[in-house]
Amino acid sequence: MSSLDAIDRQLLAILQSDVSLSIEELAERVGLTKTPCWRRIQKLEKSGIIRRKVALLDAEVLGLPVSVFAQVKTNQHSAEWADSFSSAMADLPEVVDCYRMAGDYDYILRVVVSDVAAYDRFYKKLIAHTGISDVASNFAMEQIKSSTELPIPPGD
């Protein structure tokens, strides 16, 4: 990240907020002309700092207002089991986030569903995965903050 200058940092902050801006608008905001601005964005994409460009959808409007945080314990700790679990998570569209954790639980999942019955159907698919020894489900009551924007570290 140290190779990023102030303009790169500005571009990243702007793009995280609104990737639909034209190159002209981006260039104007950071004080460049179109071609150098485009080249910088290409460099940020090629370096992997910009992974993807996506549309963020509204879960409530789509009829998916329930977020559940499922903490999963396993009694299996082999590489094969971890690979199998990762594949299972990739195949479950309800799982929008999955992290391997340190602490009392091995994994935490954020699951987005339409209602409790939909979560119950998901839960039954989840526990069918062998080697899961415990699942603790926590239903979100209110979303206080949700962001896809990462804090851009300041330059040196």
UniProtKB/TrEMBL annotation:
Q: From what superkingdom does this record's organism come?
A: Bacteria
Q: Tell me which UniProt keywords the record has, alphabetically.
A: DNA-binding, Transcription, Transcription regulation
- Residue ranges constituting the HTH asnC-type domain according to the UniProt record: 4-65
* Record Pfam families: AsnC_trans_reg, HTH_24
Q: Does the keyword Transport apply?
A: no
Q: Return the InterPro entries for the record.
A: ArsR-like_HTH, AsnC-type_HTH_dom, Dimeric_a/b-barrel, Tscrpt_reg_AsnC-like, Tscrpt_reg_AsnC/Lrp_C, Tscrpt_reg_HTH_AsnC-type_CS, WH-like_DNA-bd_sf, WH_DNA-bd_sf
**The protein, known as:** Lrp/AsnC family transcriptional regulator
What is the species listed in this Swiss-Prot or TrEMBL entry?
Microbulbifer harenosus
